[in-house]
Amino acid sequence: MKDTFKHKGLRLQLVEVIKNKGIKDEKVLDAISKIPRHLFMDSGFLDHAYQDKAFPIAADQTISQPYTVAYQTELLQVKPGDKILEIGTGSGYQTAVLCELGAVVFSIERQRELYKRTSKFLPKLGYRAKKLIFGDGYIGLKEEAPFKGIIVTAGAPFVPKPLLSQLEIGGRLVIPVGDDVQVMTLFIRNGVKDFEKHEFGEFRFVPLLEDKN
C-alpha cells in the first residue's frame, strides 16, 4: 500500500491530460490528483494506473477511465455534505472521488466479489462511505432517499424509474444510457413530475446488470 512521489508525479500528469480534454472543475481535478489509483488495481498493472484509460478488475468489471470519472463527477456538481447515491461501486475509485469532494456516499454493488473486496479496501485508504450495499442498483435505495445526486457507473439500456423518483427537487441524476454505446445523460429534477434532460457525448461502459438472483 505505497504511494510514492513517483505516483504523485504521474497523477499530476494525468490531471493535465484530463484538463486538456475539457474538465474544468478544480475540486474534481484536485480529487483525481490525490487518490492513489494504482492501489485500486492489481500490482502488475502499475504502469497503466495513471494512463487515461479504463482497465479490467475483478468480476469482469472495469475501473473507469479517469476522464469519464471526472466527467460524470463534474456533471453531478457535488458540494460538501451532499447526499449522493452511487450505482455500481466497482473498484471504489469513483466512491473515493465523491468522498474527497465531501459527499455523504451511499453505494450499491451487485457483484458480491467486488462488494466484499471494496468494502474492506476503501476504509484502509481512509475513504468511508456512509453505506456500502450489496444489492440491485436498478431499484436504488428508497429507504435513504431523497438524494441530491445519483451517479450510475455502468451502461443502462434504459433509465430506471426508481432512480428518478429518489432524487430530491433540484437533484441531479447522471447516467450513461444505451446498449452498445451509451450517451451520457443528465436529469435535473425541477418538480415532482418535472425533469429536465440533457444529453452529452458518447461513452462505453460495462453493462448495468439487473439483479437476476
UniProtKB/TrEMBL annotation:
This is Protein-L-isoaspartate O-methyltransferase. HAMAP family: PIMT (MF_00090). Keywords: Cytoplasm, Methyltransferase, S-adenosyl-L-methionine, Transferase. GO terms for molecular function: protein-L-isoaspartate (D-aspartate) O-methyltransferase activity. GO terms for biological process: methylation; protein repair. It catalyses: [protein]-L-isoaspartate + S-adenosyl-L-methionine = [protein]-L-isoaspartate alpha-methyl ester + S-adenosyl-L-homocysteine. The active site is at S64. Belongs to the methyltransferase superfamily. L-isoaspartyl/D-aspartyl protein methyltransferase family. It is found in: Cytoplasm. It is an enzyme of class 2 (transferase). NCBIfam families: pimt, PRK00312.1. The keyword Metal-binding does not apply. One of its GO terms (cellular component) is cytoplasm. InterPro entries: PCMT, SAM-dependent_MTases_sf. Its EC number is 2.1.1.77. Its main location: cytoplasm. Catalyzes the methyl esterification of L-isoaspartyl residues in peptides and proteins that result from spontaneous decomposition of normal L-aspartyl and L-asparaginyl residues. It plays a role in the repair and/or degradation of damaged proteins.
